[in-house]
Design brief:
single chain; 700 residues; alpha/beta; Rossmann fold; 5 domains; 14 helices; elongated; Class_I_gatase-like; VWFA domain-containing protein; vWFA_dom_sf; transmembrane helix; membrane
Length: 700
C-alpha cells in the first residue's frame, strides 16, 4: 500500500493552490518570450523544477510503501498423546497415527518453523524426529490446560498454536480465563470419528446417604453410540456377585436403568455396575463403574407436644416408642403454657423451654398436635420458626379441633405451607382415602406410597400458589389437600390436616402396616439423612469436581456450608481401601490430595460422632473413556476462544494460507530537515542559471 503525506503545518489545500498558482505564473511569464533552439524547451522546465524543489522544502513530504514479506514464523504444534488417541478407526489406524499423517502431508509447514509439543497430563516440547516414536500413553487429557500453559510460555513468539486432538478433555475449562491468557490465535484439528460403536457408563446417581431399612436407588446413565437406544443388558454386582440384572431403556440423550437394593445394615458399601459388551464394540473399558452408598443407623430425637390424651396422640406415641431408630419425648399440655411429660426419654425442661433455641436444637423434629396457639407467646413461635429456618430442624403440625388456630399474624405463619383463611380448625366428617399428589420434584415420602386406607375426619385448608407443595389429597383431588410441606431453603414444615390415622392401627394387620409405613416415611422425610447428619451445618457438604481421576491427578475438595455454618470444627480426610486415613488441610475452604495408587478412595468428614462420605475412583485412564468420540462442540469452543478456527481432520487442509501468512513491512522515504542544506544550494543555482540564460537572451 502506497501512502503520501507531509510534515508541514500548512493546510494541504493551501499548498495545492500555491503550487498551481506558481505553475500558472511560470507559464504566463514564458508565454510571450521567444527563445532559440533547445533553450526554449529546457529553460521553463529548469525553472519549474526549481519551484517544485522549493515547495518540497516547505511541505517536507513523506512517502510510505507497505509490503507483506513472507517470513518463516514459529508455529507451535500441540499433539494430544492421551490414551484416547490410541483408539483406532474403521481402517485400523489410531488417532495418533492420523495426526502424524496430517503433519507429514501438509506442505505449508515447510514455509514455517514448527515447534512440536505433546499434551497429556503435562506439556512437553519434543523434536520433529521424536514424533515418530510418540505413543498414546498419557493417563488423561488436559488439552485446555496445555494450551493455556503453552500460551503463557511462548507469549507472542509465533504465528499460531495448532492443536491436534480428539477433544476428550474431562476437566471443565475456564474459557474466560483462557481467553485472557492467549496472545496468539489457536487453531484446532479434530482427530477421530464423532460416531462409532461404543457404550459408555456416563454417570451413576445414588441416594446416599440413606437410612438403614430404606431402599438404595442406583441410577445408571449410559451413553450409546452406533447402537439402537436401550436393548443392552446391565448388571448390578457386589463383591463380584450379581445382585440384579436389567435392560437399558431409552430416556432421550442417555439410556437408563435403575436398581433398588434394601439398606439392611449400617456402613459404607461398594457396588459395581456393568454394561454387557456389545458386538463389534470399539471400547469396553468404559462399560463398568463403581458406586458407594453410606447407610446410616439414626437415633432421631423427636419432641412431641399435644393438647390432650386423644386417640391420635396415644397411637402415634405407641408407634414412636416402638421404632428403634427414634428417640421420642412426649409432653401434654395441662393448662396454659404448662406441659407434663407423659413418656419417652427423661427430659429436663428449662423455664419457658419453647422460647429457647438452644433447647430446641437438641431435637431433630418437633411435632405439634392439637394445640391452640393463642396461648403461645410471639417469642415461642419465633423460636419454632428459627428452629426450622436457621437450624434446619423439622416441624410437623397435626390436625384436630384446634388445627392451626391462633397462627394468623404470628412469626410462624410465614413458614406454613397454608394460606390461612380462619376456617382451618373446622372438622369435616366424611369418608375419604388420602392419595399421593402429583409432584414436579422427587419426594421420598411419596415413592411407591399409593392410595392409603380410608379416613373419616379432615381439616380443610388451602395451599398458597408459592411456598407450599401438596403431598396428599382427598381421593386424588388436587384442590383438596390433606398434607402439605413448605419449600424453605433448609428445614421442613409440614401440616397434616387429619387426626384420624389412628384408625389404621387397629383395623387389621395390613392397615397397621400402612400406618407404620405412613408415619415412618413422614418422620424420615421431615428429618432426612442429610438433615440428621447436619450436612451444611455440623458437617460440610463435600464438593468434588468429578468421580473419576487419572493416576497422578490431584483431587480437589471444596467445603460448602449453609447460612450460619459451620457449627464446630469437623475433621476432613481421605481414606484408601485399606482404611488408612490422612487429614486434609484446608485454605479458604479448599484442599487437594494426590492418590498414590489406583483404586477407590473415600473423602469424608466427621464431627460429634457423625460422618459423611463421598467417593472417587483412580485409574490409569481416569475419565478418559467417559466420552471417547470426537468432541466437535468442545473443539469449536476452544478455537473460538483462541480467536482461530476449527476444522475436522478430513477438511483441515484449508489452514495453509492462514498459518503461513507473512509479516507486514513498511518502507519510508521522506524529505527531512537535514536534507535542506543540500537542496537550498541546488535551488539557488537553478534560479541563478535561469536568470543568467534569460539575460543572455535579452529577457528580464
Amino acid at each position: 500500500m502506497l501512502k503520501l503525506g507531509w510534515q508541514s503545518l500548512v493546510p494541504g489545500w493551501w499548498l495545492i493552490l500555491m503550487l498551481a498558482g506558481v505553475s500558472a505564473l511560470i507559464f504566463y511569464a514564458y508565454r510571450p518570450v521567444h527563445f532559440s533552439g533547445r533553450l526554449r524547451r529546457w529553460l521553463p522546465v529548469l525553472h519549474a523544477l526549481a519551484v517544485v524543489l522549493l515547495v518540497l522544502l516547505l511541505v517536507q513530504p513523506e512517502l510510505a510503501l507497505g509490503l507483506r514479506r513472507r517470513t518463516k514464523n514459529r508455529l507451535h504444534i500441540l499433539v494430544d498423546t492421551s490414551l484416547s488417541m490410541g483408539i483406532k478407526d474403521r481402517r485400523g489406524v489410531s488417532r495418533l497415527d492420523r495426526a502424524r499423517e496430517f503433519l507429514k502431508a501438509r506442505h505449508y509447514f515447510r514455509s514455517m518453523r514448527p515447534v512440536f509439543h505433546t499434551a497429556g497430563q503435562e506439556l512437553t516440547e519434543v523434536s520433529r524426529e521424536a514424533l515418530a516414536g510418540l505413543k498414546p500413553e498419557a493417563g488423561a487429557s488436559r488439552i485446555a490446560a496445555a494450551v493455556r500453559d503453552l500460551a503463557e510460555r511462548v507469549g507472542r513468539d509465533g504465528a499460531a498454536i495448532l492443536v491436534l486432538t480428539d477433544g476428550a478433555d474431562p476437566t471443565p475449562p475456564d474459557w474466560e480465563g483462557l481467553k485472557k491468557n492467549l496472545r496468539t490465535p489457536v487453531y484446532a484439528v479434530g482427530i477421530g470419528e464423532s460416531e462409532f460403536k461404543d457404550l459408555s457408563l456416563a454417570e451413576l446417581v445414588v441416594n446416599s446417604p440413606v437410612y438403614q431399612g430404606q431402599t438404595v436407588h442406583i441410577g445408571a446413565y449410559v451413553r450409546q453410540s452406533g447402537y439402537p437406544p436401550g436393548l443392552a443388558r446391565i448388571r448390578l454386582k457386589q463383591a463380584d456377585r450379581v445382585l440384579q440384572e436389567s435392560t437399558l431403556r431409552d430416556s432421550g440423550l442417555f439410556s437408563y436403568a435403575e436398581f433398588q437394593v434394601p439398606a439392611a445394615a449400617a456402613g459404607v458399601f461398594e457396588y459395581q455396575v456393568e454394561v454387557a459388551r456389545q458386538p463389534n464394540e470399539a471400547l469396553t473399558d468404559n462399560n463398568t463403574g463403581l458406586a458407594v452408598v453410606q447407610v446410616v443407623a439414626p437415633r432421631i430425637k423427636i419432641l412431641y407436644l399435644d393438647g390432650g390424651l386423644r386417640w391420635e396422640y396415644k397411637f402415634l406415641k405407641r408407634y414412636l416408642e416402638s421404632d428403634a431408630q427414634l428417640e421420642p419425648y412426649f409432653l401434654v399440655r395441662v393448662g396454659g403454657s404448662l406441659f407434663q411429660q407423659t413418656g419417652g426419654g427423661k427430659l429436663s425442661l428449662p423455664a419457658d423451654f419453647l422460647s429457647r433455641r438452644d433447647f430446641l436444637k437438641g431435637f431433630n423434629l418437633v411435632i405439634l398436635g392439637d394445640l391452640d396457639f393463642t396461648a403461645f407467646t410471639g417469642r415461642q413461635l419465633a423460636a419454632l420458626r428459627d428452629f426450622v429456618l436457621e437450624d434446619g430442624g423439622g416441624l410437623a403440625l397435626l390436625g384436630g379441633d384446634n388445627f392451626l388456630r391462633g397462627l394468623a399474624g404470628t412469626p410462624l405463619e410465614a413458614l406454613l405451607p397454608v394460606a390461612l383463611a380462619g376456617g382451618e380448625s373446622r372438622v369435616l366428617t366424611e369418608a375419604f382415602s388420602p392419595a399421593a399428589a402429583a409432584v414436579s420434584q422427587p419426594v421420598t415420602f411419596l415413592e411407591g406410597l399409593g392410595r392409603l386406607p380410608r379416613l373419616e375426619r379432615r381439616n380443610p385448608f388451602r395451599v398458597p400458589a408459592r411456598g407450599g407443595l401438596v403431598l396428599l389429597t382427598r381421593d386424588g383431588d388436587p384442590g383438596q389437600p390433606v398434607a402439605a410441606v413448605n419449600l424453605a431453603p433448609q428445614g421442613r414444615c409440614l401440616v397434616v390436616g387429619t387426626d384420624d390415622t389412628w384408625r389404621w392401627y387397629f383395623s387389621g394387620a395390613s392397615e397397621r402396616q400402612r400406618y407404620e409405613e405412613f408415619w415412618g416415611r413422614l418422620i424420615r422425610y421431615l428429618c432426612g439423612p442429610e438433615e440428621y447428619l447436619g450436612i451444611g451445618r455440623r458437617l460440610p457438604d463435600l464438593l468434588l469436581d468429578r468421580r473419576e481421576y487419572g493416576l497422578g491427578e490431584p483431587v480437589a475438595v471444596r467445603l460448602a456450608w449453609r447460612p450460619g455454618g459451620p457449627e464446630g470444627s469437623p475433621e476432613v480426610f481421605w481414606q484408601d481401601q485399606s482404611g488408612r486415613r490422612e487429614r486434609l488441610v484446608f485454605k479458604s475452604e479448599a484442599a487437594s490430595f494426590t492418590p498414590p495408587a489406583e483404586g477407590l478412595y473415600l473423602v469424608g468428614a466427621t464431627a460429634a460422632g457423625r460422618s459423611v462420605f463421598k467417593w472417587v475412583t483412580v485409574s490409569r485412564s481416569g475419565s478418559e473413556w467417559s466420552e471417547p468420540g470426537r468432541n466437535d462442540a468442545w473443539l469449536e469452543r476452544l478455537a473460538e476462544t483462541g480467536g482461530g478456527r476449527y476444522l475436522r481432520l478430513e477438511s483441515a487442509g484449508g489452514f495453509g494460507p492462514e498459518l503461513a501468512r507473512g509479516e507486514p513491512v513498511t518502507y519510508n522515504v521522506s524529505l527531512a530537515r537535514p536534507a535542506r542544506r543540500f537542496l537550498l544550494p541546488a535551488v539557488f543555482l537553478m534560479l541563478n542559471l535561469c536568470w543568467f540564460l534569460r539575460r543572455r537572451q535579452g529577457v528580464i
